[in-house]
Amino acid sequence: MVEFQRNVFKQALMQGKLQIGLWSGLCSNIAAEVISDSGFDWILLDTEHSPNEIPDLVTQLQAIQRGTATPIIRPAWNDAVLAKRALDIGAQTLLFPYVQNVEEAKRAVAATRYPPQGIRGVSVAARASRYGRVPGYLTKANDEICVLVQVETRTALDQLEAIAKVEGIDGVFIGPSDLAASLGHLGNPQHADVQKAMQDAVKRLKALGKPAGILTGSEEEARRYIDWGYLFVAVGADVGLLARNADALAKKFKGG
Question: Is 49 an active-site residue?
Answer without folding.
Answer: yes
